[in-house]
Amino acid sequence: MLAAKAPAGAASDLINVAFRTEPARIWMDQNQAFALHDGNIDKFLARIDLGALTGGATQTFQQRPGYYERIYEDATTPVNTETMDGSYFQGAWQHYGMYLPVGWSPRAVFPATFWMHYRGGHANDAAAWEPGILRQFGDEAGAIVFTPSARGTSSWYTGRGMVDFQDVWRDARAHYSVDPNRIDLAGHSMGGWASYLLGLLFPDRWAASNPEDGLLVPGLWTGFSAPSDPQDGADIDAEFLAPLIGNARNLPYAILHGTVDELVPVGSAIKSGLMFQQAGFRYRLYLFHTYEHYSAPIWDDWRDIVRYMRSFTLNPDPAHVTYTISPALDHAVSTVSVPKGVDLGYVFNRAYWASGLQTRAPGMAPSNLGTIDAVTYGRGVQDLLAIPEAGALAQPEVYTMTGQRWLPLSFEQAANKFTASLTNLSAATLDLGRMGLATASRLTGVVTTDGPTHLLLTGHWASAPAVTLAGAGSGSSFSFGPSGLTLNLIPAGKPITISIG
Question: Disulfide-capable partner of 338 in 82, 159, 216, 409 (CB 3.0 to 4.6 Å)?
Answer without folding.
Answer: 159
